[in-house]
């Protein structure tokens, strides 16, 4: 992956995800090479005429000294660097023999997935890392309906139950009220290792100490580039393919598509349905959450449609919600 290539040439690269509960095995690229010093998912180039799985087995044997017995496709990522374009073909390793190590002298280690920083990885690897870090559920605040005191109680219960990704969306609070609410919610979420995204101006989200911003479809349309650095989260609300493609173009980390089913919060909206959601998910590479009439039990159907998980509004703050989300963190 060194220089001397035109910007239009594309290199097909395979990478393997070796996971052990919440840990993943990563290696560091040698200094002096393309993206030198960055951490990456181990793998390498696919030779001409070589099947991706065969390339994966060969590369991981050469780099890590393991023999891959079973692997399944996980995701693909495309990125154009100034000197070359990369198609990253990522596989999840299900079974392998021997102990992985840096067989070629490269630095290698097991790391907690949640603690990895996208800025320390090549740009082509970052969407894969973000996908690994996303939980199955995305809870959207409902302060307007519940009131701040009851919502704070329900949020605490949800966090205790395992919710790890929350959006603060309260347009009725106004900038000052939203900032105060976001600051309190951010501190509470961080006590549990959860991430808070604020549906507001990106600067307000940062001032509140939140982990990122959730762009409304209106804000998304006005964006011409990613509004925050890679170590902060950027999500977007989308309703059609054009918006999804724009979210992908500005390098959003994930999108929320709605309404998938009929919902009381938008009674006049025509639901997309599972079939259309599946078509939209196939058309883009960024992770998608299904929103609209969703419950935790819909995670499996959403994943069958190609989504990463489900986003919840009123269902997220039911009194028994915490007990219904255990086992749905990944």
**Strand tally, please?**
16
> What coarse outline follows from CA principal-axis ratios?
globular
Strand order of the largest sheet: 9-10-11-12-13-14-15-16
Order of helices and strands: EEEEEHEEEHEHHEHEHEHEHEHEHEH
Q: What amount of the residues lies in strands? A: 25-35%
**CATH structural fold name of the largest domain:** TIM Barrel
CATH hierarchy: architecture of the largest domain: Alpha-Beta Barrel
Under CATH, the homologous superfamily of the largest domain reads Aldolase class I
* Residues in helices, as a percent range: 25-40%
User: What's the mean pLDDT score?
Assistant: 93
- Major sheet attributes: 8 strands, parallel, barrel
Structural class: alpha/beta
Rounded radius of gyration (Å): 21 Å
Measure the end-to-end span.
Answer: 32 Å
CATH class of the largest domain reads Alpha Beta
Unreliable runs: 1-7
Number of domains: 2
Topology diagram in text:
Elements lengths: L9 E8 L1 E2 L2 E6 L10 E2 L2 E3 L6 H13 L2 E14 L4 E13 L10 E5 L13 H8 L3 E4 L2 H4 L1 H14 L3 E4 L5 H18 L3 E4 L3 H6 L4 E4 L1 H6 L10 E6 L2 H9 L4 E4 L15 H11 L4 E4 L7 H6 L4 E4 L8 H4 L6
Parallel strand pairs: 1-7, 9-10, 9-16, 10-11, 11-12, 12-13, 13-14, 14-15, 15-16
Antiparallel strand pairs: 1-5, 2-3, 3-4, 3-8, 6-7
Q: Could you explain how this protein is built, in words?
A:
- GO terms for molecular function: 8-oxo-7,8-dihydrodeoxyguanosine triphosphate pyrophosphatase activity; 8-oxo-7,8-dihydroguanosine triphosphate pyrophosphatase activity; 8-oxo-dGDP phosphatase activity; 8-oxo-GDP phosphatase activity; metal ion binding.
- Pfam families: NUDIX_4, TMP-TENI.
- InterPro entries: Aldolase_TIM, Mutator_MutT, MutT-like, MutY_C, Nudix_hydrolase, NUDIX_hydrolase-like_dom_sf, NUDIX_hydrolase_CS, NUDIX_hydrolase_dom.
- Residues 9-134 form the Nudix hydrolase domain.
- Its EC number is 3.6.1.55.
- By secondary structure, the chain is of the alpha/beta class.
- It has two domains: 10-127, Nucleoside Triphosphate Pyrophosphohydrolase (Alpha-Beta Complex); 134-324, TIM Barrel (Alpha-Beta Barrel), CATH 3.20.20.70.
- The protein is 30% helix and 26% strand.
- It is built from eleven helices and 16 strands.
- The protein has helices at 52-64, 126-133, 143-146, 148-161, 174-191, 202-207, 217-222, 241-249, 273-283, 299-304, 321-324; strands spanning 10-17, 19-20, 23-28, 39-40, 43-45, 67-80, 85-97, 108-112, 137-140, 165-168, 195-198, 212-215, 233-238, 254-257, 288-291, 309-312.
- The protein has an eight-stranded parallel barrel with strand order 9-10-11-12-13-14-15-16. It has a four-stranded mixed beta sheet with strand order 5-1-7-6, with helices on one face. Strands 2, 3, 4 and 8 form a four-stranded antiparallel beta sheet that branches.
- It starts with 9 loop residues before the first strand and ends in a 6-residue tail after the last helix.
- The model is unreliable at 1-7 (pLDDT under 50).
């Amino acid at each position: 992956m060194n220089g001397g290539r035109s910007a239009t040439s594309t290199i097909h690269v395979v990478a393997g995800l070796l996971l052990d509960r919440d840990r993943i095995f990563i290696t560091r690229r040698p200094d002096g090479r393309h993206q030198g010093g960055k951490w990456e998912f181990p793998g390498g180039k696919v030779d001409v005429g070589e099947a991706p799985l065969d390339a994966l087995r060969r590369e991981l044997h050469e780099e890590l000294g393991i023999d891959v017995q079973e692997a399944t496709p996980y995701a693909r990522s495309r990125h154009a660097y100034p000197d070359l374009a990369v198609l990253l073909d990522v596989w999840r390793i299900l079974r392998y023999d021997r102990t992985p190590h840096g067989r070629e002298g490269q630095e290698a280690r097991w790391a907690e997935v949640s603690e990895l920083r996208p800025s320390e990885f090549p740009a082509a690897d970052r969407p894969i890392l973000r996908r690994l870090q996303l939980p199955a559920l995305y809870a959207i605040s409902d302060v307007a309906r519940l009131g701040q005191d009851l919502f704070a109680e329900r949020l605490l219960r949800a966090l205790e139950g395992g919710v790890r990704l929350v959006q603060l969306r309260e347009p009725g609070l106004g900038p000052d009220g939203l900032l105060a609410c976001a600051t309190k919610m951010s501190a509470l979420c961080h006590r549990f290792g959860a991430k808070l995204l604020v549906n507001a101006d990106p600067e307000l989200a940062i001032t509140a100490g939140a982990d990122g911003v959730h762009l409304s479809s209106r804000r998304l349309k006005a964006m011409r580039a990613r509004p925050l650095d890679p170590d902060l989260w950027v999500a977007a609300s989308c309703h059609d393919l054009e918006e999804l493609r724009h979210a992908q173009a500005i390098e959003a980390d994930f999108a929320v598509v709605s309404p998938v089913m009929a919902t009381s919060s938008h009674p006049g909206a025509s639901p997309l349905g599972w079939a259309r959601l599946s078509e939209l998910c196939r058309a883009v590479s960024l992770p998608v959450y299904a929103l609209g009439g969703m419950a935790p039990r819909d995670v499996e159907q959403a994943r069958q449609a190609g989504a990463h998980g489900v986003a919840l509004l009123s269902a997220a703050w039911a009194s028994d919600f915490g007990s219904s989300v255990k086992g749905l963190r990944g």
